[in-house]
Amino acid sequence: MPHLPSLEKDTTIIVLGASGDLAKKKTFPSMMRLFLRNCLPKDLQIFGYARSKMTQEEFHERLSPFLPGTSEEKEGFLKICKYIVGSYDEDAAFQGLTKEIEAHETKNGGEDRNRLFYMALPPNVFTKVSAHLKKNCYSTNGTNRIVVEKPFGKDLDSCKEMIAAMKEIWTEQETFRIDHYLGKEMIKNIINFRFSNPTISESMSNKTVDNVQITFKEPFGTEGRGGYFDEFGIIRDIEQNHLCQVFCLMAMEEPKHFTAEAIRDAKVNVLKQTKTISTDDVLIGQYSAANGKPGYKDDDTVPKDSVTPTFAALVLHVDNERWKGVPFILKAGKALDEGKVDVRVQYKSPTSEHFKDDDRNELVIRIQPKEAIYLKSNVKIPGQNNGTVPVELDLTYSNRFTNDYIPEAYESLIYDCLRGDHANFVRDDELFASWSIFTPVLHAIDAGKVPVKPYAYGSHGPAELEEFIAKYGYKRMSNYEWSKTNVGELEKRLHRA
Ligand code: NDP
Ligand code: BG6
Prior knowledge:
This protein has helices at residues 21-36, 56-63, 71-78, 91-107, 126-137, 156-167, 185-195, 198-203, 226-251, 260-272, 397-400, 409-419, 428-446, 465-471, 487-496; strands at residues 11-16, 45-50, 81-85, 114-119, 144-149, 175-178, 209-217, 282-288, 311-317, 327-333, 340-347, 362-368, 372-380, 388-396, 452-456.
């Protein structure tokens, strides 16, 4: 794919579905952060478009509580945000939108007319709206880009169908498919961390690694989103996309070049070497009421007999020289005991006869909250004691990068899209390769062939989880406690040892 131009001026952003949840909570606040950092194109105008009848003022009032910054800063940003009411199925409505866009472009001189369409819409209207945009709102005198949100289908066939329908309208080059996890700082960091450190890249293989876990935990349930969620379940919501992207970055070979296409080629290659998930390699669960919190099926929008998983642990096996024999365990759950996303590379046990009972090394990349990388390592207990204690070589970002700004995921991605950089967006063949791995097990789950284990709201997940991960070799550390390498804490621990 050729390098695309960076949109630095003469640009309009159009957010379709501007009355919705994503627009309010993510799209507009992220654009405002870019605005505050002077990263938006010069003289940009943003049009919010949706069916809901609202005045401009009402639209601004709706966005305002979610925007960052002071009230003056918000006022400055909202001046460039206009709201237009229109339907998703009439040419005339989209032609009305085009007139508004053109009026702004003409004010700007009208030389170049670049348009970025952001679809903050449910997937059932994607294709219809993109067809209308192409027919009625496409700029013939500038660059057009369209941003699409997940879900990209529900299985391999529906994904292929959706992508084919979109491709008849918009080219791959014009299309930016968002998986917002690719905008997270620590996920973007995986490539640098793996390939710029020979010690790390050398250690990433079945010679030294025993197993890898990629974990997503949320401390809240699907309250309010049950209707959407019940159609998809946790594997389609989190694992086939967000965690699978992390898996690709952890498992792929070094890209030939660090370009968008070469990175995405490397991801597709490793996906093609990954076996289809077997039903034996899956543990699924659904949360029930506990600790004063409702169960999944207590939500009125969820059918009372739903067997949709809200938790799933599943294992990917890569059939190549580097990773043969190393299970990648993906775990995701709603309504768990805490909120966090991390990658845990557990190395093999020490080989020395003398230290063979010591804890294993673990390299942890904490994606959120509180970005960090730490390596659990064994050291001699200081002083007269010759025993070993597990501690961490710790890079906590907030301690090390005290003055650095870490952009929010959507902020990074909107910026990349304006710059025309596809590297952190999902290519069509990545989707096909990933759906191929997940589709059979999803169909088995949909057909009720995999038992759904209950777990209590606020717990670690189903009781069977410990046994499940132990089956793939994971060993819990026996003697380790997290400390922020605080010397006092370390001393206290050492005195206990
Ligand atoms: P919403 O349900 O809030 O829908 C957005 C807007 O689309 C609504 O305000 C409504 O606008 C319009 N709309 C809703 N249902 C229909 C329908 N059946 N037919 C036509 N228009 C409809 O969705 P979200 O904002 O939550 O999500 C938008 C997209 O982003 C989805 O693809 C979602 O999967 C994805 N996403 C959302 C995240 C989130 O945090 N919310 C996170 C990650 C991805 P109006 O009626 O005014 O036109
Ligand atoms: C979305 C899922 O894609 O990601 C949600 O649909 C989930 O169910 C969200 O809550 C998590 O995103 P983040 O950035 O808060 O980890």
